[in-house]
Design goal:
Length: 715
C-alpha cells in the first residue's frame, strides 16, 4: 500500500545558513516551535525566563500561538517572522513568545476567549496578542499581512502603534487591563442548578436548536466555512428521532462524498471552505479523524449504510499507515501545505489522471470523482486543478457503462491504487510527529470502538499499542503529561489538562469493553481519582466540604498562575472535558460503586445547566451526560469460558447500544467489584442490569437481544 514519505515538520521559513538557530526553540519538543528557530525574531517559549524578562525590562509581550499544520501560520511566518526588518521591530520593543496551542491548550483557551471579548468575533490561528508584562491582553488579532490588505492593517504598523502606545500611555493601558481581567473572570459559570430543576429531555432541546442551523441540501450546520461538529452528530444519533437521524445521515453522507474526505488515501481534512463540502482546508488532524471514525462507526450500526463502512475502513487504514509511530503513539497532524502550496499534494492537473489510468479505469473514475466536469480548485500555483469528490454515484456509472456494480467497484479500486501510488511520489505534507496524550486517547477510543463494531482485531491492536505508549511515557506517579516525541522524550514536563484526563478515562472504558482486565479497571480508577483530586472546584483544605461551585477547572490545582483559570463545558473542535468527564465518571462510578465520582459528575451537571439550556447546540457532550444521568445506570455483563464468547461478541458488537456498556469477563477473573462479580458457570450467561438490579441470567444470544430491545423490563 502506498505510503507518502512524510517528513517530520520542518522549518517554515529557512534563514540564511549564517544565522545560528535559536537554541531556546531548537531544543523544544514541538515541531511548531522548532519551525521558528531560524527566524531572525528573538523568540522564547512560554516559560519563567521569558515572563521574568518582560517584567524586568518592562516590555510588553508579543504572544504568537499556532500549530505545525496551520497554513496561515506558515504564511505569516514567511511574510513577517522571516523578514529582518519586521523582526528588528519585534526584538526592539517586545518580548516575543511562541506557543504551540496543541501543547498549551490552557494558554490558547484563555487568549482565544480574550480575543473574542476584545474583537467581538471568534479567533483562530495564528493568534496574535500583545500583552502587558503581567500577561494581560492589550490588543488581539489573528493573521496580519505585511502590507494593508482586506481591511487588515500591516503587521509592522501594528507593532509600531502598540510600542508607541505602551511608551506613552502605559498607566492607562494597565488600568484598562485590570478592568478587562474582571470582565474575563465573569465568563466563568457560578450558579449551579438544583437537580430537581433539570430539564426533562436534554437531547430534544439540542435537536431543536440544531434544526434551526441545519442545511437540508448539503448537510452541516450554518454557512461556510463548515466544520464537522462530530459531537453534535453523536448526539443526533443518540437522540434517534427521524428528524435527528435525517440531519445526521445527510451531513455524514455529504461529508463522505465531498472533498472534505480524502477519496484516495482516507481520512478527513480540517473543514470545508464552501457550503458543499467540496474544497477543504487541507490539514489533517488526529482529533478530527478520531471523532469522525467513531461517529461513522455508530452511523453504520444504526443504518447499515455500506458507504459508512467504506469511510471507516479507509480512515482506520490511513491512521495505521500514516499516523502511527513505530513505537506505538499516534502522530498529531499532517500539514495543509506541500512544496509551499496549500493542497498541492492532493489536487490533480488536467490530463495527469487520464495518463495514469487505463481506459476502463478512467471510464469509471473520471465521472465518479468529478473529473469530467470543469476544475474546482483555484488557489495558488495549483489553480485550475481538480480536487476529488464523489460527483456521480458508482451504481449510476455502472448502469451507463452496462457493467455490474461489482465490476465498477473493481475498476474504481484499481484506479484509486494507481493514483495513490502516483501521489505518494510527490513532495508530501510535513507531519507533526509529537505524541499528544489527549488526542491519542481520542484515537485509541475510536479505533477500539470501530474494532468492536466491525470485528477488526488489527485496529484494536493498533489502539493498544498507542495506549501502552502513553501509559509508559506520559503517565507517571498518577499524573498525566501532555506531550512527548515518538521516542517518549520531552523538552519540558507539561502537565496534561482536564480534557486529556477525561479522554483517557473514556478511552479506558472502551478498552474494558474490547477486552476486560482488572489492570485496566485499576488504571481507569487511578485516572478518575487523579481527575477529581486535581481539577474539581472544591476547597482543597477539607475534601469533605461540598464543592463551592462544582465542575472541573481546565488546569490542575498546582498549575502555574495565569490571568484566568478556565472552566469550560462548551464543545469546540473537540468535546469539552467537563461533559466527557461527567459521562465517564457516571459509568465508572456505577461499575466500581464509587459515589465520589458520581457526585463530582452531578456537580458538573448542576453548574453548567443554565448555559447549556440557553445554548444547547454547543453543549452536546454535557447534554449526553445529563441524558445518561437521568436513566438508571445500565450494563451488560457476560460471564463464562472465554472460548465461548465469540458468537455473543458478534451479536452485540455490531449493534448500536450506546446506553449498554457490554463487558465480557471470563471465568477465573479475580477481585471483581460487586457490580461485575456475577456467577461463573461452564457455559456463557449474560446479565442485563440497570442500577443495582439485574434480570435473571440469560443463556442464549437471541434472548439477550430481545431483553436489550425492551430495556423497560429492567426495574
Amino acid at each position: 500500500m502506498s505510503r507518502p514519505p512524510h517528513a517530520a515538520a520542518a522549518a517554515a521559513s529557512p534563514s540564511p545558513a549564517s544565522r545560528p538557530a535559536n537554541p531556546r526553540l531548537s531544543r523544544e519538543t514541538s515541531p511548531y516551535l522548532r519551525q521558528h528557530a531560524d527566524n531572525p525574531v528573538d523568540w522564547y517559549p512560554w516559560n519563567a525566563e521569558a515572563l521574568a524578562l518582560a517584567r524586568t525590562t518592562a516590555r510588553p509581550i508579543l504572544l504568537s500561538i499556532g500549530y505545525s499544520a496551520c497554513h496561515w501560520c506558515h504564511v505569516m511566518a514567511h511574510e513577517s517572522f522571516a523578514d529582518t526588518a519586521t523582526a528588528a521591530l519585534m526584538n526592539a520593543h517586545f518580548v516575543n513568545i511562541k506557543v504551540d496551542r496543541e501543547e498549551r491548550p490552557d494558554l490558547d483557551h484563555i487568549y482565544q476567549t480574550a480575543h473574542q471579548l476584545m474583537t467581538g468575533r471568534p479567533g483562530g490561528w495564528p493568534l496574535t496578542l500583545f500583552l502587558t508584562p503581567a500577561g494581560v491582553p492589550i490588543y488581539a488579532g489573528t493573521y496580519f499581512p505585511p502590507r494593508p490588505r482586506h481591511g487588515l492593517p500591516a503587521f509592522a504598523d501594528v507593532l509600531t502603534s502598540i510600542a508607541n502606545a505602551w511608551q506613552q500611555r502605559r498607566e492607562e493601558i494597565e488600568a484598562r487591563g485590570r478592568q478587562f481581567c474582571r470582565v474575563l473572570a465573569h465568563t466563568l459559570p457560578d450558579t449551579p442548578t438544583e437537580a430537581r430543576d433539570f430539564i426533562d429531555d436534554p437531547l430534544s432541546l439540542a435537536v431543536t436548536d440544531l434544526a434551526h442551523a441545519f442545511d437540508p441540501r448539503w448537510g452541516g450546520f450554518g454557512a461556510a466555512p463548515k466544520f464537522p461538529h462530530a459531537s453534535d452528530l453523536d448526539l443526533l444519533l443518540l437522540a434517534g428521532t427521524p428528524a435527528a437521524l435525517s440531519m445526521a445521515t445527510t451531513t455524514l453522507t455529504r461529508m463522505a462524498d465531498g472533498g472534505l474526505f480524502d477519496q484516495l488515501g482516507g481520512g478527513f481534512y480540517r473543514y470545508s471552505v464552501d457550503e458543499r463540502w467540496q474544497i477543504p482546508h487541507f490539514e489533517k488532524m488526529l482529533y478530527d479523524n478520531a471523532l469522525l471514525l467513531r461517529v461513522y462507526s455508530d452511523a453504520w450500526a444504526v443504518t447499515d449504510d455500506a458507504r459508512y463502512r467504506e469511510i471507516v475502513v479507509a480512515t482506520a487504514e490511513w491512521v495505521m499507515r500514516e499516523m502511527q509511530s513505530p513505537s506505538g503513539g499516534y502522530f498529531a497532524s499532517l500539514d495543509a501545505d506541500a512544496a509551499g502550496e496549500e493542497g498541492a499534494f492532493y489536487v490533480w492537473p488536467a490530463g495527469e489522471i487520464e495518463a495514469l489510468l487505463s481506459a476502463e479505469e478512467a471510464a469509471v473514475a473520471l465521472p465518479h470523482w468529478g473529473l469530467s466536469g470543469p476544475p474546482n480548485f483555484f488557489e495558488g500555483a495549483a489553480a485550475g486543478c481538480w480536487h476529488l469528490r464523489v460527483a456521480t454515484p458508482l451504481h449510476a456509472i455502472a448502469d451507463d457503462l452496462g457493467i455490474s456494480p461489482q465490476a465498477a467497484r473493481q475498476r474504481l479500486d484499481s484506479a484509486r491504487d494507481t493514483l495513490r501510488a502516483a501521489r505518494a511520489r510527490r513532495p508530501a505534507p510535513a507531519r507533526d510527529e509529537k505524541i499528544l496524550a489527549g488526542w491519542n486517547a481520542l484515537m485509541v477510543e475510536a479505533m477500539l470502538h470501530a474494532a468492536r463494531v466491525f470485528g477488526r482485531p488489527e485496529w484494536a491492536q493498533s489502539a493498544r499499542r498507542a495506549y501502552a505508549f502513553v501509559r509508559q511515557f506520559l503517565w507517571r506517579d498518577r499524573r498525566l503529561y501532555a506531550a512527548c516525541d515518538a521516542q517518549g522524550q520531552a523538552s519540558a514536563a507539561i502537565d496534561a489538562c482536564l480534557d486529556d484526563y477525561a479522554y483517557w478515562l473514556a478511552a479506558t472504558l472502551e478498552l474494558l469493553q474490547e477486552c476486560y482486565s482488572n489492570e485496566d479497571l485499576l488504571f481507569a480508577s487511578a485516572v478518575a481519582d487523579a481527575l477529581v483530586d486535581a481539577f474539581e472546584d472544591r476547597p482543597q483544605s477539607d475534601p469533605s466540604v461540598a464543592p463551592a461551585h462544582a465542575g472541573f477547572f481546565f488546569t490542575r490545582h498546582d498549575h502555574e498562575a495565569l490571568i484566568l483559570r478556565p472552566k469550560p463545558a462548551h464543545d469546540n473542535a473537540t468535546p469539552a472535558g467537563n461533559g466527557v468527564a461527567a459521562r465517564a465518571l457516571l459509568r465508572l462510578g456505577q461499575l466500581c460503586g464509587e459515589t465520589r465520582w458520581q457526585a463530582a459528575a452531578e456537580g458538573v451537571l448542576a453548574l453548567f445547566h443554565a448555559p447549556a439550556q440557553h445554548s444547547p447546540a454547543g453543549f452536546a457532550s454535557w447534554l449526553m451526560a445529563l441524558h445518561e444521568w437521568q436513566r438508571p445506570p445500565s450494563r451488560v455483563v457476560i460471564r463464562g469460558p472465554a472460548a465461548y464468547f465469540a458468537p455473543w461478541r458478534a451479536a452485540l458488537n455490531g449493534r448500536y447500544l450506546p446506553a449498554w456498556p457490554c463487558l465480557f469477563i471470563p471465568n477465573g477473573t479475580p477481585n471483581l467489584p460487586p457490580a461485575l462479580a456475577l456467577p461463573e458457570s461452564d457455559h456463557v450467561n449474560a446479565w442485563v442490569c440497570a442500577g443495582v438490579k439485574c434480570l435473571p441470567a440469560i443463556s442464549g444470544v437471541a434472548a439477550l437481544l430481545e431483553a436489550l430491545s425492551k430495556p423497560g423490563k429492567v426495574k
